[in-house]
């Protein structure tokens, strides 16, 4: 179930920036959200158009960074809800936010190095996790993959962090040519990375990418933590619309309250 009590707040919009076409970074201000959100948890935002009639359902977003009383979200503009939200996000305006919600990453694991793998916009929750580990002084390796170089944004920020960074593109237009799993295997073979079992592994991205990495970990007698991107309508377990199948037993998890982060051994990745 959800790790901590959530808050409904009127969060002030501090700043809004278009990182690349239809990818928005917004910084919002709420002490309750910023101070209490753990890596991997999310918030939901009440999205309404000018006449406040549609859409009815809230929209979920991973918290990608926190600083003081401020927190950041990064999202693709992919449909009516996020298109309306883009227009709503004006500096100085207040919007209705519920959070923090869900169960985040388990960061209280053994002292192994941290291997973070992101596909596409999956970099958003990975960014907050990276912040957590670097502030603790842990050794962090980040692999970020996209279809082509246009998928990357704010790359200088990640290059400036005290981490080991690898990037990959399916078409070879930036970095390694191949997907996230391809570069992972290649860099282990080239001795640029340690063996897979020497890391605590965290994965966020499209379902096929996460499943491929999880299957590889299983082959290596290891596991990873995955953050599912299953559509979550209510965010608090009421609508039952984000069910995902359990792997080792009958039944289903609800992504919004049992996740969105799961051990790869416990859930069927959709």
CATH class of the largest domain: Alpha Beta
Strand element count: 16
Strand order of the largest sheet: 4-3-7-1-2-6-5
CATH topology name of the largest domain, in short, is Rossmann fold
Number of helices, where a helix is a run of at least 4 consecutive DSSP H or I residues? 7
Biggest sheet character: 7 strands, antiparallel
Strand content is 25-35%
Structural class: alpha/beta
Q: Which descriptor suits the 3D outline?
A: globular
CATH H-level name of the largest domain... which superfamily?
Nucleotide-binding domain of ferredoxin-NADP reductase (FNR) module
| Cα-to-Cα separation, first versus last residue | 20 Å
Radius of gyration: 18 Å
Q: List the quaternary state of the chains.
A: single chain
Fraction in helix: 10-25%
pLDDT average, as an integer? Answer: 93
Secondary-structure element sequence? EEHEEEEHEEHEHEEHEHEEEHE
Low-confidence stretches: none
CATH architecture descriptor name of the largest domain: 3-Layer(aba) Sandwich
Q: Please, how many domains?
A: 2
Description:
With 270 residues, this protein is α/β, with parallel strands linked by helices. It folds into 2 domains: 7-101, Elongation Factor Tu (Ef-tu), domain 3 (Beta Barrel); 113-263, Rossmann fold (3-Layer(aba) Sandwich), CATH 3.40.50.80. It is 23% helix and 32% strand. Strands 4-3-7-1-2-6-5 form a 7-stranded antiparallel beta sheet. A hairpin with a 6-residue loop joins strand 14 and strand 15. The protein is globular. The model has no long low-confidence stretch (mean pLDDT 93).
């Amino acid at each position: 179930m959800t790790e901590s009590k959530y808050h409904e707040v009127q969060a002030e919009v501090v700043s809004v920036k278009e990182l690349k076409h239809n990818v928005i970074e917004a910084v919002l201000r709420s002490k309750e959200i910023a101070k209490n959100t753990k890596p991997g948890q999310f918030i939901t935002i009440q999205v309404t158009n000018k006449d406040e009639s549609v859409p009815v359902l809230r929209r979920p977003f991973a918290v990608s960074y926190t600083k003081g009383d401020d927190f950041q979200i990064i999202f693709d503009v992919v449909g009516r809800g996020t298109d309306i939200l883009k227009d709503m996000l004006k500096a100085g305006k207040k919007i209705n936010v519920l959070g923090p919600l869900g169960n985040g990453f388990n960061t209280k694991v053994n002292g192994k190095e941290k291997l973070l793998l992101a596909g596409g916009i999956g970099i958003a929750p990975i960014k907050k996790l990276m912040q957590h580990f670097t502030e603790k002084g842990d050794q962090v390796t980040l692999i970020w993959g996209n279809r082509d170089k246009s998928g990357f944004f704010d790359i200088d920020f990640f290059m400036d962090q005290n981490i080991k960074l690898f990037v990959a593109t399916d078409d070879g237009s930036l970095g390694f040519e191949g997907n996230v799993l391809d570069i992972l295997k290649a860099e282990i073979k080239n001795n640029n990375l340690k063996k897979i079992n020497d890391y605590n592994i965290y994965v966020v991205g499209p379902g096929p990418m996460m499943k491929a990495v999880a299957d590889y970990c299983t082959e290596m007698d290891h596991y990873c933590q995955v953050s599912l991107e299953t559509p979550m309508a209510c965010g608090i377990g009421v609508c039952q619309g984000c069910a995902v199948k359990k792997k080792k037993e009958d039944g289903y998890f609800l992504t919004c309250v049992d996740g969105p982060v799961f051990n790869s051994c416990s859930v069927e990745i959709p």
